[in-house]
Amino acid sequence: VNYHADINTSPVTAVDRERRDAAAGIQTTDRFARFSQRNDMFNRAFWDDEIRRPEMMAFFDSYRKTPSFRRGRGFGQKDFALRNAAWAVSDEFSSRGESQGIREGFNAPLQPTAQVASEQVEVESRDDMTAEIKQIAKLFGAGIVGIAPYDPRWTYANRVSSATFEEDETGLPEGLTSVVVLGHEMDRALVDTYPSAVAGAATGNAYSEETATVIRLSQYIRNLGWQAVGSMNDSALVIPYALQAGLGEYARNQLVITPEYGPRVRFSKVLTDLPLVHDQPRLLGVRRFCDVCTRCIDACPVKALPSGPPSDVQLNRSAIQGVIKWTSDAEKCFGFWADLRSDCAICLRVCPWNRDFGYWWNRVWRWFARTPARGWLIKLENLSKRGKRKQSTNWWKRVKSVTPR
Ligand code: SF4
Ligand code: SF4
User: Taking a C-beta distance cutoff of 8 angstroms, is the pair 224, 270 a contact?
Assistant: First the structure.
């Protein structure tokens, strides 16, 4: 998937970082400060009295303890059953150290099955090792893989304990040079039913799959005698790494749009000192498309997405400081999730880039999306039924119709 690779190795020089940032569409200002994980909405819901409310705890409880079945379509017992089962692999790992403050994959890295081997495999060719790691990542379940240079700007200023919600050291080892970024596709038919509990199975499934991929890939690298930290939402921001690894381009809905899956993808990462070749960022024309599109803004039920060009305005403490980008109002967004008792991705569902690029006509669409024809594509999108919410009952009917006897 990723071409145009160079043999640039870490540490990245200031000049090269500037070049790579420009190529990836990343802009920082003098106000830049690393993000503290304690400030993300999922953690603030536990400690920040300014925003926390009982619905937020009911949201978390609905995943493991008390699903909130109700009459609305897509929120029945089967819908919650599927969503929560989809999360089960991720839950298994995240819960095992939660009470000791180590919620793996969220507040701390996935813990190693075995430590770094005492003997180190020699890397004679970075190119060969890079090709091998990408193949093995796919063998372990990744859909797309890219490699970025390690960049301390994206490491959290500190992690947060899942027991006390106090700040703690991220604990990343010294000497990291590369980040292997892994993308997992979210199921399209489930995404079509957002907002619903059953749609949340698309997110849960991707989390469970990435847990299994990250834990195996990081263990493989440790078995070679090199350091590897298996990471999901913990330790560092993943979006800048996905951009730097050439996997896609940042969009107004705060997602990375990839040429393979559009925005319908979740990312995880393995941070390592294994000598690898870094991919180059690549732009797909998303920035110019989003400049003239408002579909996600219009569809957001709580108006949490920004209009206008990217900026470094910080609406609240859940936004990173000193990065010029489109940033949602995370307080409004998570408030809606809490009321729904499930995650929302309406802004993903309605995005014109949410297509199956396995079909040639969607690849033709992608080609035109880079051209001034983008305005017409948006008009056509608005006239068509694409992106409209599908009933979860249709999803269940479809399951029955394809179930082998
Ligand atoms: S996830 Fe839902 S609430 Fe949040 S920004 Fe997207 S559409 Fe709005
Ligand atoms: S819906 Fe439109 S504006 Fe929003 S992310 Fe997709 S292309 Fe960009």
Answer: no
